Amino acid sequence: MRPFKLTCIILLLATMPLLAQPSDNASPKNAALKIEDGAQRLTKAQIQKWEALGYGIFIHFGMSTYDGIEMSPGALPATAFNPTKLDVEQWIRTAAEAGMKYAVLTTKHVSGFCLWPTKYNDYHVMNSSVKVDIVGEFVKQCRKYGLMPGLYYCSWDNKNLFGSKTPPAHTGFGTAFTTEEYRKFQWNQLEELCTQYGAIGEVWIDIPSFLPRDYRDKLYAQIVKWQPEAVITFNNGHGDGTTMKQQSTWPTDLLEMERQLPDGSFMSKKSKYEPWKTVDGKKYYLPGEMNLPIGNEWFFVEGDLPKSDEELLGMYLINRSRGANFLLNVPPNQEGLLPDMYVKALMRLKENLIKLNIK
Questions:
Q1: pLDDT tens readout for residues 43-77
Q2: What is the DSSP pairing of strand 282-285 with strand 276-279?
């Protein structure tokens, strides 16, 4: 028996019971009724449209690609950002060919470097070595290839402090905080992102624990006004999605599971991610989104090999069978291209899914 077939049999044994043993309330009729009865902002049709996308590409690209520091201090000049063969179309074409249905781009990560020509600071692409509005090109290519565009924005910013305190890399969040001036800066930049590029399907606000709850409430409401059809996710990492971190994350339309598969085991009665969460005494239907890098790092690092074909296939099957969307991070290299080793891994994953008759 060939290794691939043996692996697939094991994976199917692990996932088929999940599909064959729904909970008492998991029938389509009951699920539809429960979604309609929820307190969430989005309608049942909007939620199901997003859930039906299933599989997306996460694209981490920015100054960390060039200084090699995930939690970059933003110390390099804007000109250090120099993707000499930048090809945003290659990113999105590859995702479409791999069967992905949506894409999320890091417009500003911890370095503070912006992939669009913002008017609120000078640390952006138009002052770099490549004067291209990457956000604009990203959205354009998503529309060309039929992918839903999503935009990520990080609340942790080591460059644009405005008196804020951010933690040293990899030491935990500690007593980090943002000032009112920084929050105004963030608000203004998000207005640019949410009003200059047409309809955006998903708005990612990372590390919202740096933001006070009253500001998060106001920001969420404003994003809804800018992008009323979008799903909005305030990500603080929710483990396997069993519980949500209300104090540091709420409000949100989704629960993010970072580097961890959604809860569920074919050896137990619980076999699905549970989207129903109670917040302030009300029930909300909050779909899950599991995200992790194709290798080990979020940003491209030379020699960071993709996960094995078996591991990628297993993660896809288990994640999707447990009812959460799968957002796989595939970072461009310093040339501005998705590395060939990642492209080939994506295509092999697609081929393996086809062999299992999974679309």
A1: 888 999 999 999 999 999 999 999 999 999 999 99
A2: antiparallel
